[in-house]
Backbone:
């Protein structure tokens, strides 16, 4: 089964305007702890250059007639603090669905689009796993594609750096 056919993700992907999948291989004996460690470091990654991008975004969304409620803070999470129940907050995302050691799906919705972040740990063989990080985007208005196409190059850089931070946390453990 491909990751796009995952039962939780497939309905979102079918209606998405944009889907981005980044996959890495990991080896672990503790999938529950590894998934939480990865997500905690990934969500907690918030260097000064990302804060600068959010400040620039603030001006850009105002040009499109939208608003931004401040700049996300850099709360560091411990793995045990990663919420795994629907409705709980994960940074500026809200958990939509989660299963310990398997996946976490969270969403953030604004007037122009809804974005989902999914992290899925897929068993391959033995201790080998594929760690998928997905961004799924659905536009709500004309501002959705305008906004997302402008930020898309930055989105790829940001997500790749967040993944690197998550993987570094796994290797440090």
Residues:
């Amino acid at each position: 089964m491909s990751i796009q056919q995952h039962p939780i993700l497939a309905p979102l992907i079918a209606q998405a305007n944009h889907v981005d999948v980044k996959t890495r291989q990991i080896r672990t004996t503790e999938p529950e702890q590894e998934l939480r460690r990865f997500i905690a470091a990934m969500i907690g990654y918030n260097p000064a250059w990302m804060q600068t991008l959010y400040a620039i975004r603030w001006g850009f969304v105002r040009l499109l007639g939208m608003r931004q409620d401040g700049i996300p803070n850099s709360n560091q999470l411990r793995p045990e603090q990663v919420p795994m129940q629907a409705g709980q907050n994960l940074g500026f995302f809200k958990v939509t669905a989660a299963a310990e050691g398997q996946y976490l799906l969270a969403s953030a919705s604004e007037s122009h689009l809804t974005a989902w972040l999914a992290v899925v740990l897929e068993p391959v063989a033995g201790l080998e796993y594929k760690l998928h990080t997905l961004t799924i985007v659905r536009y709500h208005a004309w501002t959705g594609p305008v906004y997302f196409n402008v930020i898309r190059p930055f989105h790829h850089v940001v997500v790749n750096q967040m993944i690197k931070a998550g993987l570094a946390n796994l290797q440090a453990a």
Observations:
- The chain has four helices and six strands.
- The chain has a mean pLDDT of 87.
- The first strand starts at residue 18 and ends at 27.
